[in-house]
Amino acid sequence: xxxxxxxxxxxxxxxxxxxxxxxxxxxxxxxxxxxxxxxxxxxxxxxxxxxxxxxxxxxxxxxxxxxxxxxxxxxxxxxxxxx
Length: 83
Prior knowledge:
Blueprint: H1 5-11, H2 20-45, H3 50-60, H4 63-79
């Protein structure tokens, strides 16, 4: 076995302390990985292609989409149990 600081610390039951930078890089990489995964799932689950959505927005504006969203939100609110 190679005798270096990591192995020596393990032999006497000590651990290397993680620095703030180590935790920051780890946290950011998890966040970015999750964001990429979420974006990929959103692209796969989208009901319309990007071209269709852009065409609808240029023809009708954003109001019909907002009205559909408001209708879904109201239906969800009405069906939720009240305390």
